[in-house]
Amino acid sequence: MSLGRVIVVMCVVAIGGAPGVRGVVQRASAQETMNVGFMWHMHQPQYRPGENVLQTDASGAFSFSVTDVHNQRLGPYTSWPKDAIQSGLALSHLGAQVSFSGSLIQNLNTLEAAGVNGGQWNNWEAGYKQAAQWDTSLGNPRLDMVNFGFNHPLMPLLDTRDITMQI
Predict the structure, then answer these.
(1) Is residue 51 pLDDT above 60, yes or no?
(2) Which of 40, 70, 72, 158 could disulfide-link 98, Cβ–Cβ 3.0 to 4.6 Å?
(3) pLDDT at 163
(4) Quick check: 149 and 102 in contact, CB under 8 A?
(5) 148 and 74, same structural domain?
(6) Cα 10–chain centre separation
């Protein structure tokens, strides 16, 4: 797809499909396929070095509950990406990517082990494991878990020693 056609598509979105522009987009869409990617990027930091999320919360170091920050994101961190993929299983090529930082995984594992909120974090990763087993019609995974460094670093800017610490 040429840059000009991408710009036309964005203009239609911006101006609500004005007459004249709509015809250009319809002709372009009849000639070319538009691929759409879905990527959920999940991250929460280790809020205070040397402490887990519950220790940080108990310390009172912040004016908000660090545990509640995670609890407010229960759906995104447990089931929403899997649910979205499942709703599109009739589409032969639909898939998505999800990335979790190592610090977020550590936080969620801590909440799970502590039985926070009556165990709402128990098996938090089950939906991801389930969706990772689904394949597209071409045999590609419908859910691709994307790895990146533990503390969300910009790897190209790090030296080899620091990269090794993040993996």
Answers:
(1) yes
(2) 40
(3) 79
(4) yes
(5) yes
(6) 24
